[in-house]
């Protein structure tokens, strides 16, 4: 990549003193605790329209966190460690129990953030169907205590503070759960969601009573623009102040001063349906893996804003490369002999259809007959999870759900995983993930995660293609945009123009 910001090791010990955290207190972002009584509104273009009516329990959760609407008990700091959010401190009482002490805070509907409200919110998350990815393989119980919440897990969970930083475990007021989990006016972040216009736009106003200080912008006018060229045009013509996921093909059309580049823990991968269709045969999966040339994808599609796929974790996870374990037990590739497969992807990230075209050519040269299907993500996700495609190309941030390297393995590649696009159910892989999840020591957990990665890669259920950076269009008069490797944040209390 042209610029690379490497992450330090994930720290599993709680941070009990004030520190920088993505989406954390306004003071850390340069905001004035007294606030600006007026402040300009921010115009923001997001790549993904809501897929589930802005439910906090699925992919929409990151939309809410990126817009500064929601927050949980904890956040992630710049090094991937758990940092205070609604919980100002925590301690582990025993192998299965943690006590989280709450700060004084108010929900956007005026009610207080109480231990009872937090416990109820977490209980609703555990009952959601499907379960949030952050809770994959985890059962927890939350009980209100005096000024605190005691959380008990069925099995020891050494990374619970990291897990609770997930956008899908955001805490909403009791009013939100009268009918599902409605974030409109019920969250606790610096910006209050006041109106949602379907999949087109949303209106947010500054929440003046935010515990971290009043935001400098008076509100946000968000537009959901799936077309990447349209997002770039909106920046170039001054229609928006911030636009996420600028296509690399559009980078040259923008003033360099309006482009911000950040390394991420996002990996673009080819997921092969292991449960039905042609790729149920591991020999054909091996043939597909051997057909793929990821360097051609990086050079031809990402134009240098990515690294060739090395694994589920890429170079932005700085500890991974030195600990990587070679996959073993792979099947011997079979001749495809014209085997017909359907390859699907989405166009919210404009590079993905281009990647699909490159892979279509590579697979066809290897002997497959490939049909492409490209849709907008919200119209594709359910079919992909139901296994209606033989292969799927997606871009996944490996640390977005929990900040824990084991989390993405459990949610994406185990029998009970909630985001298992490859529909993988392999005893060896499940055992390796379970063993990694039981390790508390940071370095040993990383080692175990890499062994689990090797077990998963050995099934050829997933073929890593590229480790991406991201480009964000930012108007030259805008300050304080929050760019982090986990892609959980975008605007905060210090974001302004």
Defining traits:
497 residues, alpha+beta, 22% strand, disordered N terminus
Order of helices and strands: EHEEEEHEEHEEEHEEHHEHEHEHEHHHE
Strand content: 15-25%
As residue ranges, the low-confidence spans are 1-36
Structural class: alpha+beta
Helix content: 10-25%
Number of strands: 17
Structure explained in plain terms:
The protein has 497 residues and is α+β, with helices and mostly antiparallel strands. Helices cover 23% and strands 22% of the residues. It is built from twelve helices and 17 strands. Strands 1, 8, 9, 10, 11, 12, 13, 14, 15, 16 and 17 form an eleven-stranded mixed sheet that branches. Helix 11 (427-437) packs antiparallel against helix 12 (442-457). It is globular and about 65 Å long. Residues 1-36 have low confidence and may be disordered.
Layout of secondary structure:
Layout: E1 41-46, H1 60-66, E2 74-76, E3 82-84, E4 87-94, E5 97-102, H2 115-127, E6 140-145, E7 148-153, H3 160-163, E8 191-197, E9 201-206, E10 219-224, H4 228-236, E11 242-243, E12 259-272, H5 282-291, H6 294-302, E13 306-308, H7 320-323, E14 340-346, H8 351-366, E15 369-375, H9 381-385, E16 391-397, H10 405-413, H11 427-437, H12 442-457, E17 462-474
Parallel strand pairs: 1-10, 1-11, 14-15, 14-16
Antiparallel strand pairs: 2-3, 4-5, 5-7, 6-7, 8-9, 9-10, 11-17, 12-16, 12-17, 13-17
Helix pairs in contact: 6-8, 10-11, 10-12, 11-12
């Amino acid at each position: 990549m042209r610029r690379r910001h490497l992450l330090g090791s994930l720290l599993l010990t709680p941070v009990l003193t004030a520190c920088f955290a993505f989406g954390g207190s306004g003071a850390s972002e340069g905001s004035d605790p007294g606030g600006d009584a007026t402040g300009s509104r921010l115009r923001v273009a997001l790549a993904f329209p809501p897929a589930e009516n802005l439910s906090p329990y699925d992919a929409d959760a990151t939309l809410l966190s990126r817009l500064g609407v929601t927050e949980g008990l904890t956040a992630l700091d710049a090094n991937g460690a758990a940092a205070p959010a609604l919980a100002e401190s925590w301690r582990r009482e025993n192998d299965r129990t943690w006590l989280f002490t709450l700060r004084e805070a108010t929900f956007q509907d005026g009610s207080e953030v109480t231990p009872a409200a937090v416990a109820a919110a977490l209980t609703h998350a555990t009952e959601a169907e499907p379960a949030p990815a952050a809770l994959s393989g985890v059962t927890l119980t939350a009980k209100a205590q005096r000024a605190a919440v005691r959380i008990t897990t069925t099995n020891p969970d050494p990374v619970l503070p990291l897990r609770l930083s997930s956008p899908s475990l955001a805490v909403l007021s009791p009013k939100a759960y009268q009918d599902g989990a409605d974030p409109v006016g019920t969250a606790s972040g610096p910006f209050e969601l006041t109106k949602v216009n379907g999949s087109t736009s949303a209106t947010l106003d500054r929440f003046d009573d935010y515990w971290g200080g009043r935001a400098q912008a008076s509100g946000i006018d968000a537009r959901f623009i799936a077309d990447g060229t349209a997002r770039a045009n909106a920046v170039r013509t001054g229609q928006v102040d911030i636009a996420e996921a600028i296509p690399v093909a559009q980078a040259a059309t923008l003033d360099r001063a309006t482009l911000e580049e950040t390394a991420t823990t996002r990996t673009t991968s080819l997921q092969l349906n292991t449960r039905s269709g042609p790729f149920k045969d591991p020999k054909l999966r091996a043939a597909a893996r051997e057909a793929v040339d990821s360097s051609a994808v990086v050079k031809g599609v990402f134009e240098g804003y990515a690294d060739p796929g090395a694994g589920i974790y890429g170079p932005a996870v700085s500890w991974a490369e030195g600990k990587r374990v070679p996959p073993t037990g792979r099947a011997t590739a079979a001749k495809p002999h014209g085997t017909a497969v359907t390859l699907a992807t989405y166009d919210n990230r404009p590079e993905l259809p281009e990647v699909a075209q490159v892979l279509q050519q590579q697979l066809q040269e290897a002997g497959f007959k490939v049909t492409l299907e490209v849709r907008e993500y919200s119209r594709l996700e359910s079919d992909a999870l139901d296994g209606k495609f033989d292969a799927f190309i997606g871009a996944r941030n490996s640390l977005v759900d929990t900040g824990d390297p084991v989390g993405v393995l459990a949610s994406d590649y185990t029998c009970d995983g909630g985001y298992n696009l490859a529909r993988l159910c392999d005893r060896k892989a499940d055992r390796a993930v379970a063993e990694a999840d039981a390790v508390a020591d940071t370095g040993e957990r990383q080692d175990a995660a890499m062994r689990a990665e090797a077990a998963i890669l050995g099934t050829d259920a997933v073929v890593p293609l590229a480790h991406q950076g991201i480009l964000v269009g930012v108007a030259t008069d805008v300050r304080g945009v929050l760019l982090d490797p986990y892609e959980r944040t975008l605007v905060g209390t210090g974001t302004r123009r």
